[in-house]
Design brief:
The structure holds four protein chains of four kinds. Chain C is mainly alpha-helical. Chain C contains 13 helices and four strands. In chain C, a hairpin with a 2-residue loop joins strand 2 and strand 3 (about 190). Classes of the chains: A alpha/beta, B alpha/beta, C mainly alpha, D mainly alpha.
Chain lengths: ~550, ~375, ~350, ~375
């Protein structure tokens, strides 16, 4: 996709020079934050001028959300020991202990998930809990503001004004339910700018759910708001958008500020490199007897469409070599997670998927499982585990249901009524606990009380019980500590090498993909952007994730 | 707009309802209000009998099974009868709560309708002031007669089962007090036991199960010569069964009638020729009791009270409307009652309201295995 | 070890400790006032046996994720019809009892299936809809009892000669067959091996069922529907099976109940049948998401013992009968407690 | 919901131009029951004057109770079965007024005054309980009603006369403890109805009582247009969003319960003054059941209910109640079958209405998903 820079951008750039001299509206200095001993932010600083659009970019887990949580005084920050460093607004040090205080200080936030009531009109949503009221006889009698009438004309006037500032011609009294997603985003923004005191607006990945035209309109509004003197902090993955609107760009990586660029110094390639770049400690992976090749294809995906909210797959085709570890990368929202979920029948899917030439019927987990596919879900606690059940039940249940494992052999004719073979299951679970080094009190322990890493191992054990030919693993290291991460990755490599399992591993952490995979496929907007070798340069990965190179890079 | 359309439909419906309706009539009608058979077969069948006898002259409607909660429906059923201009008299048996309210409402538009009640549940004095005529078994007298009968059957103790809701009914509470006095006078130990309320949330089964469990306990404690009595209809079957099994004495049901409790408790076979044939039913009960070894320990009235009350009320209503009698004429009332019962009856007025038409009735008893059938 | 101890305490829970304490007070009082404690215990055991299977009927619906089965009267009605057909056909004794079950179960399967189809279409409102479906089906069956073509002269009304009586005596048919089977005495406590054994047999059957492939699939579907889906389990079907199982158990439960009780109760009697069963399983420590056989046994024992002993004992001690009202408050208080406690359920 | 001229224009332009299919789809429940009522009225063959009289009396008697359900629905708490608590408060007040012998309208007003704080306190407690059972409000409020019934019995059967002083022998049981099962409310009987009750072509209209109900509609409309009303609606739509937006969700829900309970208490007093006698231990038991049935028949759902639906619901439900026993009797030829038929209809109504709504919700959600997929 080629990017056409709008003409007025030049003007904004011109302005930015002047702004250097203007007073900063926000400064966050030397912010350091630890969660349970893990440093997630290390001496991060960022500042904002009135009328500036400041882009904050970084991979998942780079620390953007934590920084914003600090700015908003979220309870989660204070309940976990606070942070060090200081926040200044208009040059004065502030201590924001709650979102309400942040709001009072003039900070507005456009939420990623819409905080809109579908049954209310646009006006009612914009003025939610800030409704202007007029007195009436009863409210005077009881001296209660609660009994004041809503001042509907003023509400509408205010809402109209806010919508006009965004150049939104929609009827302010239309109900929100049924509006296109893009409009909802604008209503969120309108609500923020309707707050008279708002001078700083934070946009947290606002375009993630928008179509291209909607995204363009949103960027347009951003510029408009900046022109009105509002300082904007713009968090996004989409580098082309950054290039289109940002005056300055701050790149976060692993909780540290790696770069701060002015618009004129920045090029997409450079930002991408800064975002993903990290010293990849290339470990020598054990060799195989026979290296996988295109001659021997295990799984063919053809024009796969998956309707997974937030991770739509829109016609993806891909071939997986037998015996390889294939990585699937890409930015959040581009559909990399939808692939495995679609093939495994968890979300509505269409297209053609075949294993060894045999067609796999879609939309049925049972069909996929019984054909030697297995899946370790990214949603460990939601999809992957029965939290209140013991380890052995978690490990065995899928294999039991799909392959009649761990069951007594009687009655032959009615497998549904065969009893569970406790001894066999227990023995298997104990074996797995030993092999995967699951730290627990025994196979009877409910998995809820296990640590994240051990829970993940239970998930993998569950998939292994199926003895799969092809294993899908999504976000295998999400939310587990560093030591456990390595163990999990090692485990996957061992499975691949020792048991010849073909692994398709989806991850938001490019680093780990590059560490263990034979090839890394990058997904962009629901389609395959290209496949790179793990040792391709940071810039190549960055560009491909930003959708800046065509297909067939390999 | 949408509201308008619905509103229009409602109006259209009410208008159409007016068009649909239209009734032709005989000279006058009598309304009868009873419960369903599951509440008590006697009064329902009494109404059926009257319906069979007088045909269209009788309008029979039902109050709800859970009449305690659905007063409004009872009221609507009664006022519904009164809405028919041909209805000149309404018989309510049993007169469950809500009847007084209904009568008051009807009086405002139809002061001409006479109300005849059987077994009123509400305050007797209140009922006496409202209804034109009421029948109730003479609870105070029965307080004496039942205990005397028990003594006659060999009782040394007298066990009285009830529960808060019934003891909140003044007549029943008073009767219990009288029973106690009479028992003490006769040298019988009076025992008051609490049972679960069958109208409570565990319902009739819970109450019945309690009786089945409690009677053996009591008999073990007090011996076989104990007379059992309960204020609640649904407890009669388990009481009779337990009395038969333990050898206790059962002098009378709450609502005295051969068909109340006995047929179900004894698993009586009702052949075609027995249907509605009281003497035949009495004989069959007698045979069953004797066979099970209960001779001389079980008794009841020879007539199904509620059954005959419906008949008596209808006849009294007819004769009153046709000017053949006065409701305040105790002898005339008694004559019609005895005609319906075909056994002698004793009748008196409620002592608290000597000038009202609240009549209290008593009948002699028949003892199974002793009397001739 | 401390974990185990903590778990045990958690398992017992405050409400159960309270009720157990209350029961202890009652038994001590009974002893002091000279009541026969073994007799009270015997009565309580009978109650446990007769109510147990109805309580057990709650387990499948809770396990498959539908929640408490407020539609229990549906199964009860099936059981009553089965019991009636057996009587109409003149079966006596154990054959009568088993014939009743044999007639009732297929009916319950059909009714349970239809009920599950209905509940599937009202997801999220299962308990409310269940309550009212139960209520209205009782009324429909009232009409059925009046019109049904039963001819057995022992079943019909005395004066009218048609329609079924509201209370049918089972004495000549299969009344007390279980209760009188294998009766023995320990320490003066009369125990009916037949009745208690039958209840425990069903506990065992249900326990084993939840150890089969199907049962585990159902548990999984109830515990985490998304997990179940990802494990290739048809969640809808599991709910169906759970509701059918519950309905069948209710049908068998009412037959056991009736034979012990000695009567079949028709008309409005089944209306409130669900409530004591629900109270019992909640008192036993079950939540809206999870119920075990142990919950059933503990709950039934505590609740039924409370019902059986509280009234006769307290009415000895205090004049009047506050115990009847106290029972109302305690049992509803327990359900309320459970509803306000269990978290996470949506 | 507040409507602006534009909104109406949009509606009339789009889908209300007598599009019968749309009307049937969105009002399936009331139309079903309207059809049922007409059929049954035709079968029952009641006199129109009687039917009108009966329906108007019942409308006057019950509409306030049904209206009391609206606010909790608006606040997203579903159908409030615990209005029986309000009814109990009202009965306590009615008993007190009878005891003190305050007659006529002043007696009625005294009872209202007395019932209000009682209902407010109990309603607040109910709100606290329901806040701990979010998502299960309906079944919880139902059990709460049963529970409160136990407390009520404890007070009036055992404490009155023993712990609570009570000096009227005629209202107490013979043994001096506990209130009798029927209390004659002669002092306040029909006090409101009697003020002005003209007869128009055979139909007696208790004008003042009807006006009270309509007045309550105005009050509710007023409330919903105030700041607190807006909060209630916001909480009703999505508790989490409301919380994030700084609305005190728990407090708002408690206010909803207090309002509902207080209105229910007044409603029960209107009901009792019309009936004229009080069934001490049972009058309140079915209040929640029947009011809810009426509201559902009017087309309300557990998530959305309007004043109009409440009023239409009262009329339809009670028409059905008046005609169904007779219709059943005529249809089956046996009076008691008619009665069971009526019970079936009463309970069945709620089951069917809940089922239809749940089904409609699912259909709507499915459509929303389909649309979302299409726009992609």
């Amino acid at each position: 996709m080629l990017l056409v820079l709008p003409v007025e951008l030049v003007l904004i750039e011109g302005k930015s020079k002047n702004m250097e001299r203007a007073r900063r509206v926000l400064e966050m200095k030397g912010i350091t934050k630890q969660y349970f001993g893990n440093t997630v932010l290390n001496n991060v600083s960022i500042d904002l001028y009135p009328g500036e659009i400041h882009a904050l970019v970084g991979e998942n887990g780079a620390g953007k959300s934590t920084l914003m949580n600090i700015l908003f005084g979220m309870p989660v920050i204070h309940s976990t020991g606070g942070f060090s460093g200081e926040v200044l607004i208009d040059g004065e040090k502030v201590e924001l202990m709650s979102p309400a205080e942040a709001m009072q200080a003039g900070i507005g936030m456009v939420h990623q998930e819409f905080m809109l009531l579908p049954g209310f009109t646009i006006t009612e949503n914009i003025k939610l809990n800030r409704e202007p009221t007029t007195k009436n006889a009863l409210s005077r009698l009881f001296r209660s503001k609660s009994l004041d009438y809503l001042d509907v004309p003023t509400m509408r006037k205010d809402a109209r004004a806010a919508l006009d500032r965004l150049d939104l011609a929609i009827d302010e009294w239309a109900p929100v339910a049924g509006l296109p997603v893009g409009y909802m985003q604008f209503i969120e923004i309108a609500r923020e700018i309707d707050k008279k005191e708002v001078r700083i607006l934070v946009f947290d990945e606002p375009t993630a759910v928008l179509t291209e035209t909607e995204a363009d309109r949103l960027l347009e509004s951003l510029r408009r708001l900046a022109a009105d003197g509002i300082a904007i902090l713009f968090i996004t993955h989409r580098l082309d958008e950054v290039m289109a609107v940002a005056n300055r760009i701050t790149v976060l990586r692993d909780g540290e500020t790696v770069a701060r660029l002015n618009r004129d110094e920045a090029v997409v390639e450079r930002i991408a490199e800064l975002m993903v770049g990290r010293k990849v400690e290339k470990v020598e992976l054990p060799p195989r007897a026979k290296e996988p090749s295109d001659e021997d294809i295990a799984l063919t995906i053809d024009n796969l469409v998956v309707d997974m909210p937030g991770e739509m797959v829109r016609g993806l085709s891909l071939s997986v070599r037998r015996g390889e570890i294939l990585g699937i990368g890409g930015l959040a929202g581009h559909g990399k997670l939808g692939i495995a979920n679609g093939i495994m029948g968890l979300y509505p899917a269409s297209g053609r998927v075949s294993k060894n030439g045999e067609n796999i019927p879609l939309n049925s987990p049972e069909e996929a499982l019984s054909r030697g596919l297995a899946f370790v879900s990214e949603d460990r606690r939601g999809v992957g585990l029965l939290l209140n059940e013991p380890i052995d039940r978690n490990i065995g249940v899928t294999a039991m249901q799909v392959q009649h494992k761990f069951l007594k052999s009687w009655p032959h004719f009615l497998p549904a009524l065969r009893l569970e073979d406790r001894a066999e299951l227990r023995a298997y679970a104990e074996d797995m606990i030993r092999k995967l080094d699951i730290r627990c009190l025994g196979p009877n322990q409910p998995v809820r009380s296990l640590s994240g890493g051990n829970q993940q191992k239970v998930c993998i054990a569950k998939a292994l019980a199926l003895e799969p030919e092809i294993l899908f693993v999504s976000e295998p290291t999400r939310g587990i500590d560093v030591g456990a991460k390595r163990l999990v990755l090692d485990l996957l490599v061992r499975l691949n090498r020792d048991h010849n399992v073909t692994i398709i591993m989806t991850s938001s952490e490019l680093g780990e993909l590059r560490k263990v995979c034979d090839r890394v496929a990058i997904v962009y907007r629901g389609r395959l952007a290209g496949i790179l070798p793990p040792d391709a340069s940071d810039a190549e990965f960055g560009l491909m994730m930003a959708g800046r190179v065509g297909k067939e890079a390999v | 707009m949408r509201k308008f359309v619905i509103g229009l439909l409602v109006v259209a419906f009410l208008v159409s309802a007016i068009g649909v309706v239209g009734t032709a009539a005989p000279a006058y009608k009598i309304g009868i209000v009873t419960g369903t058979v599951s509440q008590g077969e006697d009064e329902y069948r009494g109404a059926e009998k009257m319906k069979a006898k007088y045909g269209d002259m009788i309008k029979h409607v039902i109050y709800p099974d859970n009449f305690m909660q659905e007063q409004e429906t009872t009221i609507a059923q009664i006022t519904g009868l009164a809405a028919d201009p041909d209805v000149k008299a309404i018989v309510v048996n049993q007169a469950v709560p809500g009847t007084v309210a209904a009568i008051r409402q009807v009086r405002e538009i139809r002061p001409d309708i006479i109300f005849l009640l059987g077994v009123p549940h509400e305050d007797p004095e209140l009922v006496s002031d409202t209804a034109d005529l009421s029948f109730e078994t003479d609870q105070e007298r029965r307080g004496v007669t039942i205990v005397q009968l028990a003594k006659e059957l060999g009782a040394e103790k007298f066990l009285h089962y009830s529960f808060p809701r019934h003891m909140a009914m003044p007549l029943l509470a008073k009767r219990a007090d009288i029973m106690k006095e009479e028992a003490e006078r006769l040298g019988i130990e009076f025992i008051f036991a609490t049972a679960p309320d069958p109208m409570g949330e565990y319902g009739i089964p819970g109450a019945q199960q309690f009786i089945l469990e409690d009677v053996p306990r009591q008999v073990e404690k007090y011996g076989k010569n104990i007379a059992l009595f309960s204020t609640n209809c649904s407890m009669q079957e388990p009481l009779i069964i337990s009395a038969l099994n333990t050898g206790a004495i059962f002098p009378e049901q709450c609502c005295p009638s051969p068909t109340h409790g006995y047929p179900a408790a004894l698993g009586l076979e009702i052949t075609d020729e027995m249907k509605g044939n009281i003497p035949a039913i009495l004989k069959a009960i007698n045979d069953a009791i004797v066979e099970k070894g209960g001779a001389g320990r079980f008794a009841t009235w020879p007539v199904p009270t509620n059954y005959l009350l419906v008949e008596a009320c209808v006849e009294i209503a007819r004769d009153t409307i046709e000017g053949k009698m006065e409701l305040s004429d105790l002898d005339a009332v008694k004559a019609r009652l005895e005609a319906a019962a075909s056994v002698p009856m004793e009748l008196r007025r409620l002592p608290e309201k000597p000038d009202g038409n609240f009549y209290l009735l008593t009948s002699g008893s028949v003892v199974f295995g002793r009397d001739e059938f | 070890m401390t974990d185990k101890l903590k778990q045990t305490v958690e398992h017992i829970g405050i409400p159960r400790l309270m009720i157990a304490g209350f029961l202890a007070v009652i038994f001590v009082t009974a002893y002091i006032t000279g009541m026969s404690v073994p007799q009270l215990l015997s009565d309580s055991l009978v109650r446990v046996g007769m109510n147990g299977i109805l309580v057990l009927a709650m387990v499948p619906t809770i396990s498959c994720g539908v929640g408490l089965n407020f539609g229990l009267p549906l199964g009860v009605l099936c059981g009553l019809v089965g019991g009636l057909i057996s009587m109409e056909r003149g079966f006596v004794g154990f054959p009568g009892f088993f014939a009743a079950i044999a007639f009732a179960v297929p009916l319950a399967v059909v009714v349970g299936y239809l009920y599950s189809v209905l509940l599937e279409s009202v997801k999220g409102q299962e308990m409310m809809v269940g309550t009212y479906v139960g209520f209205s089906s009782v009324a429909v069956m009232c009409i059925f009892w009046l019109m049904a073509p039963f001819r057995n002269p022992e079943l019909i009304w005395a004066i009218g000669g048609k329609g079924l009586r509201s209370t049918l005596t089972l004495g000549n048919y299969y009344g007390k067959v279980l209760n009188n089977f294998a009766v023995f005495e320990i320490f003066g406590i009369k125990i009916s091996g037949g009745l208690i054994g039958f209840f425990l047999l069903f506990c065992l059957l249900v326990y084993l069922f939840f150890r089969t492939k199907l049962g585990i699939a159902m548990l999984t579907a109830g515990a985490n529907p998304v997990f179940a889906k990802s494990a290739g389990i048809d969640v809808r079907r599991m709910k169906s099976v759970g509701i059918i199982a519950s309905t069948v158990l209710a049908a068998i439960g009412i037959i056991v109940y009736a034979q012990s009780y000695g009567f079949l109760q028709l008309y409005m009697a089944p209306l409130m049948m669900a409530f004591p069963a629900i109270a019992a399983i909640l008192i036993g420590g079950a939540s809206l998401q999870r119920a075990t056989i142990l919950n059933v046994i503990i709950g039934t024992v505590l609740f039924q013992t409370l019902l059986t002993t509280a009234l006769p004992v307290t009415s000895r001690v205090i004049q009047g009968d506050i115990s009847e009202v106290a029972r109302l408050i305690i049992s509803n208080g327990m359900i309320l407690y459970a509803l306000t406690r269990s978290t996470g359920g949506k | 919901m507040i409507q602006s001229p534009e909104q109406k224009k949009v509606e009339s332009g789009r889908d209300v131009s007598l599009d019968m299919r749309h009307i049937v789809r969105t009002n399936g429940v009331p139309i079903l029951f309207l059809a049922l009522s007409i059929t049954m009225a035709a079968v029952a063959g009641l006199s129109p004057a009687f039917l009108m009289n009966e329906v108007i009396t019942r409308f006057a008697r019950n509409s306030l109770l049904v209206l009391s359900l609206l606010i909790p629905v608006t606040a997203g708490m579903g159908l409030n079965f615990s209005i029986v608590i309000g009814a109990m408060s009202a009965q306590a007040a009615a008993i007190a007024v009878t005891l003190w012998g305050i007659k006529g309208v002043s007696g009625f007003l005294t009872a209202c005054l007395l019932a209000t704080p009682l209902a407010a306190i109990t309603g607040c407690l109910a709100g606290l309980v329901l806040n701990r059972a979010k998502g299960r409000e309906m079944i919880t409020s139902m059990i709460l009603g049963f529970f409160a019934n136990g407390i009520y019995q404890l007070i009036f059967l055992f404490l009155v006369g023993s712990v609570i002083p009570f000096n009227s022998k005629s209202m107490l049981l013979p043994q001096g403890v506990g209130v009798r099962n029927t209390v004659d409310l002669i002092n306040i009987a029909q006090s409101l109805d009697k003020i002005w009750r003209p007869v128009i072509s055979g139909v007696r209209i208790p004008v003042v009582t009807v006006l009270v109900s309509l007045g309550m509609c105005v009050v509710i409309t007023f409330l919903l247009r105030t700041k607190i009303g807006q909060d209630l609606r916001a909480v009703g739509q999505d508790m989490n969003i409301a919380e994030v937006m700084g609305i005190k969700v728990d407090k708002t829900r408690i206010i909803a319960m207090i309002l509902s309970t207080v209105i229910a208490a007044w409603g029960q007093l209107v009901f009792l003054q019309n009936i004229g006698t009080l069934n001490t231990y049972n009058s309140h038991e079915q209040v929640g059941m029947f009011s809810i049935a009426a509201l559902l028949v009017g087309g309300a759902s557990t998530r959305r209910a309007t004043i109009f639906q409440a009023l239409i619901g009262v009329i339809l439900f009670h028409t059905l109640f008046v005609v169904s026993p007779l219709a059943g009797q005529k249809l089956f030829g046996v009076p008691q079958i008619g009665e069971y038929f009526r019970v079936f209809v009463a309970y069945g109504i709620i089951a069917v209405a809940l089922a239809i709504h749940a089904w409609q919700d699912r259909q709507m959600r499915k459509e929303a998903i389909r649309e979302a997929v299409l726009t992609e």
